[in-house]
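Deviation from plan, reported transparently: aspartic acid complex.
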Amino acid sequence: MKKKILVIHTGGTISMMEDPTGSVIPGSENPLVAQTSQLESMAELYVIEPFHLPSPHVTPREMMELKLIIENEYSSHGVEGVVITHGTDTLEETAYFLDLTVKAPIPIVVTGAMRSSNEIGADGLYNLMSSIRVASSEDAIDKGVLVVLNDEIHTAKNVTKTHTSNVSTFQSPQYGPIGIVTKRGVVFHHSPTYKECYNINGISNKVSLIKAYAGLDSSLFHAIKELDYDGVVVEALGQGNLPPASVEGIKALIEKNIPVVLVSRCFNGIAQDIYGYEGGGKDLRDHGVIFSNGLNGQKARLKLLIALSHTKDIEEIRDIFTH
Ligand code: ASP
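Because the crystal trials were delayed, the predicted structure below was used instead.
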């Protein structure tokens, strides 16, 4: 029996075309909608297009819209799986937002493409087909939101875009994919160990993301305080350290009860409180900085936005970042 799969097209290269000058642009019609008939043997497809945006135009407002659509389509129409097509630039952020917030026990798969629909070697239709297969698989239930491209299945939590143009751009540093898509089937070889879901009704807070560099001082942190941000994520150096000149600005934020979350700017590994010198991870923790458990900067920022919609209690936020 074919599964009832909701396909949500949101825009991105997967739905764009290359013009004769070589620019990739959205057209008046989404080519994926016309191609849906080729996929109808795989599932009972129900296609919607709530917005059509390049993914650098996507904000938490659109992510929230997708969350509400999925929950409503699950409870009112009994959809059994969801596939979202999305631009690849911010795909991991939308996927992780949905992972942290959607209440619906069905597979949710996010996919995209690196080549637009009329380019040689276009990967969009193929990735959409693989994603429908994953969203229809019983084994995809309870795995959290998944990202499927290039025959690989990644968790929303670990996946990141690693290359500007290569079709194998989506990788899960440190952990790898949790499954693969083959010609014969969908094979999972790992399962996520922890599932979290937060109740939110909207996103209204402001959270900024700062990347540390040699010589970073406190001025940006003072500016963040003056601009009334509700939180900040810092991509720290190495194992979780910052230049000493930045510490005073960070302390000023924490004194104002503004959470400061630390991740590492390193591609692999987890930021931790190891070094005891001024600006070292241990020193930062003693000042009240929150350590994130291996997320990258953009995902820690989204998690902090969601955490702040859920609670203002710094210790509760610290606890949320232990997972
Ligand atoms: N710039 C495009 C976007 O994110 C890239 C893509 O879709 O691959 O919308």
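The mean pLDDT is 96. We consider this an acceptable substitute for the interim report.
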